[in-house]
Amino acid sequence: MTRVKHCALVLIVVIAAVGSYGQVAFERIVNAAKEPQNWLTYSGDYAGRHFSPLDQINTTNARSLVAKWVYQTAATGKFETTPLVVDGILYATGQDDRAFALDARTGRPIWLYQRQLPYDIRPCCGRVNRGLAILGDKVFMATLDAHVIALDAKTGNLIWDISAVDYKNGYSFTLAPLAVKNFIVVGISGGEYGIRGFIDAYDADTGKRKWRFYTVPGPGEPGHDSWEGESWKIGGAPAWITGVYDPATNQLFWPTGNPSPSNRGEGRAGDNLYSNTLLALDADAGKLNWHFQFTKHDEHDWDATQVPIMIDSGGKHLIAQANRNGFFYVVDRTNGKLLSANSYAKTTWSGGKDAEGRPVANKESSPTPEGRTVCPGAIGSTNWMSPTFDSQTGLFYVTAREECDIFSTAPQPYEAGHAYYGSAYFPSDKAEPYWGALRALDPTDGQLKWEFRHISPTYSGVLSTAGGLLFTGDAEGNFIALDAASGKPLWHFQMGGAVYASPMAFAVDGKEYVAIAAGSSLYTFGLP
Amino acid sequence: MRRMQALRLRTLELAVLLVLLTSVKVPAADRNPFSGDPKAAKAGEFEFRINCAFCHGLGARGAGRGPDLTHAQKRHGSSDADLFQNISSGIPGTAMPANGTNGQGVGMTDEEIWQIITYLRSIEVKAPSQPIGNAIHGKQLFYGDANCSLCHMVEGKGGRVGPELTGVGTARTVEALIESARNPSQKLAWGLTEPTKEFAQEYETVTVVMPDGRQIKGVALNEDNFSLQVMDTNEKIHLLEKDKVSSIKKSRESLMPVYDNTLLSDEDLRDIIAYLQSVGSK
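Predict the joint structure of the above. Result:
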């Protein structure tokens, strides 16, 4: 009897151990800082800081960094992934919606999943994907044909696959989902097609939709009157970058993109809520608690789809964003009130602010059929690449680009599934050649502390680490380590392909690695 | 019985095959379904403006980066099938990206690509019956008194400091070629954005001072945040690490001399352009 009891106990212990091995419970993501060897969510933590608490690689030894392994996807197109690492396994996505799991020490593959995409998808701006979410024993991918899928983290086998919306009408997913509690949050892409944007939450076990928040309010909903006539139906406001989550208040903070058509305000008079807006949503219900609109009635494609970062400073609970429109916004995240908005790059589109302190557009910068030169340019002062906040230096770091372009209108009728941006861009003869910079900003007001100049703009995000380092990539293929306090470059490695991704860090067997995608390859670096 | 069954099956298979053959339209990539349709040309003009004009300029007349597309004779193929292929898949070895991959725009449908081709056909300029100048004399000038070949190569002959010019006669408008000679600093090759980063040369003038005081002046072949490759006026390539030089000065003033009327008459310049056109259309 005793022996049977003992066996049963052993069995239970074994089952519990097997069941929990490699499992990523929600609490682990909440407490991500307690396991610095892992990178459990798109931005490294729920606050969006893109910061690694690892310090083995630091300012004293960064000069000796060497390449550890390279994984090639052998796929063309921009490779935008930010990998996840859990207990020695690296999970990432590649071009054309592939997902893969690798031995994080060696880069040797464990499994590969390749989505069979319909032939007629036409996502804007490349067949890209920025990464996975992990929860329990599954990884989650949002696909270019507007599906959300769950894969077995051990095998890559498909567990469930749901269609969020019909891709034929211009909808797609490119972002890394966010796992919260027992559900998966995603935001749609398609601001170039006259979609109606939304943010969805799906049950992680079944794929059943838990809630949907339309980023363009329907009839009878608050904000609906900010759209002229029927323009709300094709108002855009996609939500294509992974938002952040505040466990203390159970709120999602999720930024949205441009109204459609992007450069042509005619026909959609009004503020066009909730385009270019930071949304505070109750995570369980998907209900709006507050909103802050960065750019009202946008005519420059000032997508606010940049990762916002939750920062606590001086007893205040802030959320800060370096916006595509060239301004650095600091918002009180308890109520959505704007605290400051100062430019961190060259801006000519706005010369004044409204009563709340929000920059407003000049009439002279409104695009015309002939076109007008505006700064920032077509890509903005920054874009989707991750910024980082380093609590050790107390600085916010962002990849900035200095570029001015001609913005023109190009009126076009709406046709489902066809381009509907009403815009054309041209290089301006009057403008300087484009250049870029990694800028260190005061997170409370966006004031510039220092910059590292790039000879041309880069699409690389920035990682900060407890080793006093920043890591970033450049358009010419260099991976660079800099002193986070001074911006001095300490080390670089030529990877042979332009960077369209954000670096991240992890550790296996007590050794720290830094990883970044460049060209068609995923590179990792470590100490010799 | 079995044989009958097999025959019936074969008949059925044939019928299915026939139905399939008649009902499935295989998208033809070699023939323009809108050929000569002015409505399609108009739609194509719009598509061109939002998808192509950033590089090729309004009216397809060529801009800093993309060639003039109004010539009937195009360097990478002039047939409908060639154009469709080039727009769909890009042109390897050039800055021309495949449809939907340029990071700025939306991928076009086959229909929209054909509309663009229809538009390009509608604005094509036939080669003038008379050349713009005397190509034989132009060639003599190019390799002789005008000194063009000291820096520029055509069909494997000439210098290396300036851009290779074999295809330029068809890639650029006459106006752009005249401007390049009369005011070479006006438009250096435009700063290239990400999708075309591997073709980064802008022919910026670079002056590097070495720690021993030696000065290197030439054009930047390539550059990143840490290194610089320079060709000096003697065609020597200098491979430099930025932290090992004393100073680097870059200038948008071209190394090419300004060919004003006193240096090169309008007539002589037209002869040189005629020569470049005769080479480019080969």
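Chain A touches chain B through 42 residues (CB under 8 Å).
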